[in-house]
Write a structure and sequence with these properties.
By secondary structure, the chain is mainly α. It has a single domain, classed as Winged helix-like DNA-binding domain superfamily/Winged helix DNA-binding domain (Arc Repressor Mutant, subunit A, Orthogonal Bundle), CATH 1.10.10. It contains four helices and three strands; from the N terminus they run αβααββα.
């Protein structure tokens, strides 16, 4: 994943995955959440999603729920993942504020 953890910038897909997991979900439910919240603008394939989930687990931002031996493995966002998502929200709000000040003043 191309997330810049030093600068705080996450990819849009990563941010949506983290947001989706504030309530535990399995892979297909994550894909549905992202499709619904973006009006279909973002659509993830299974390979992309599961690669991202593995990467986010390695970073400690998400974790599987309970016994993950079943076919539908559910995931949840960790405390570290929530902190990352909150920092991204602050960064995005700052970006929108600066852009609004520039674009709105023309």
């Amino acid at each position: 994943m191309r997330d810049n953890t030093k600068g705080g910038a996450l990819t849009e897909v990563t941010f949506y995955i983290l947001l989706s997991l504030y309530t535990p979900k399995h892979g297909y439910a994550i894909m549905q959440f992202i499709g619904e919240k973006t009006g279909g603008r973002l659509s993830l394939g299974a390979g992309t999603l599961y690669g991202a989930l593995n990467s986010l687990q390695e970073k400690g931002w998400i974790a599987p729920c309970g016994d993950s031996r079943g076919r539908k493995k559910e995931y949840f966002i960790t405390l570290q993942g929530k902190e990352t998502a909150e920092k991204e929200l602050v960064r995005l709000n700052e970006l929108v504020s600066v852009a609004g000040g520039i674009i709105g003043s023309q």
